[in-house]
Amino acid sequence: GTSISNVDALSRIELHNQECKTDSSESDAENQETESSKDDEIKVKELPVNHAKNQIIIKLGEQPINEYHVEIETVHNNRNRITVIFQKNDLETQIVKFIKEYLKPSKSYGVYFESD
C-alpha cells in the first residue's frame, strides 16, 4: 500500500513541475512583448520640472478662442522654459498642434501641469 501512494505522490509532483514550466514559458513570452512595446511609450519620471533642460509649463485658460498661447524663455542661463496656455474648448486639437509645432522627439522635456 505505501509503495503505490509514494508512486502516486511522485507522479503528481512531476505533473506539477511540468505545469509550472508551461506557465513560466508563457509569462516569458508576455514579458518580451511588454518590453518591446515599451520602446514606443513615453517614459515618465517623477522629478521636479526645474531639473529638466527643456521645461513645459501647462496652464488652462478660458478665452473664447480656440488657439493656445505660448511664451518661451531661457531660465538659469541654459534651460528653456515653454509656458503654454491651452483653452478649455477644443483642448485635444490644441495639444496635438502644440506638440507638432514645438516639441522634438529627440529631446526630453520636464512637464508641469499648473492647476487652478
UniProtKB/TrEMBL annotation:
UniProt name for this protein: Uncharacterized protein
Q: Where is this region: Disordered?
A: 16-42
